[in-house]
């Protein structure tokens, strides 16, 4: 992926994956909407349906990517996990855990084979409970959304290359 702004690949890219019309599946999108208020201009925030080709195109050539998605692993709704891709293999349940089928895990696997991965990819997964069309996200998942937004903002601050945006 090339960018008109030469520094764009060096700034972090934040991707929220989800479907806002399927209850807890909106978790990744909701995190992006919350962190949008705390990151500086120039940090790209994308809301995505999570297609493999789209994810590969978004993160190709990037230095740092943070991706947030709802997942199912049998844990309590609203709990969340952080995984840095490459530190260890993706958990076996990852391919079945995404609410979008295996798209995130498939994008990672295909990106690794095609050498189209960012230098750093961190995935935050929020345990979801329901995916019924027309329902809003559950209170438990909304709490997880807030916790992940705070954790992601803190991680960006600790990185030292991104200062927190204090404007409203």
Quick description:
This protein has 168 residues and is α/β, with parallel strands linked by helices. 32% of the residues lie in helices and 19% in strands.
Describe it.
The chain has helices at 27-35, 52-59, 94-97, 103-114, 139-159; strands spanning 13-17, 44-48, 64-71, 80-85, 120-127. By secondary structure, the chain is α/β, with parallel strands linked by helices. Helices cover 32% and strands 19% of the residues. It has a single domain (9-159), classed as 3-Layer(aba) Sandwich (Rossmann fold). A 5-stranded mixed sheet has the order 2-1-3-5-4, with helices on both faces. It starts with 12 loop residues before the first strand and ends in a 9-residue tail after the last helix. Helix 1 packs across helix 5 (139-159) and helix 2 (52-59) packs across helix 4 (103-114).
The whole-angstrom Rg is 15 Å
Largest sheet at a glance? 5 strands, mixed
Low-pLDDT segments, ≥5 res? 1-6, 93-97, 162-168
**What is the rounded distance between the termini?**
31 Å
Structural class: alpha/beta
The whole-number mean of residue pLDDT values reads 85
What is the name of the CATH superfamily?
Answer: HybD-like
Shape summary: globular
**What number of structural domains do the residues give?**
1
> Do you know the CATH topology?
Rossmann fold
Number of strands: 5
Spatially, the strands of the biggest sheet line up as 2-1-3-5-4
Query: What percent of residues are in strands?
Result: 15-25%
Helical stretch count? Answer: 5
CATH architecture label name: 3-Layer(aba) Sandwich
Portion of residues in helices? Answer: 25-40%
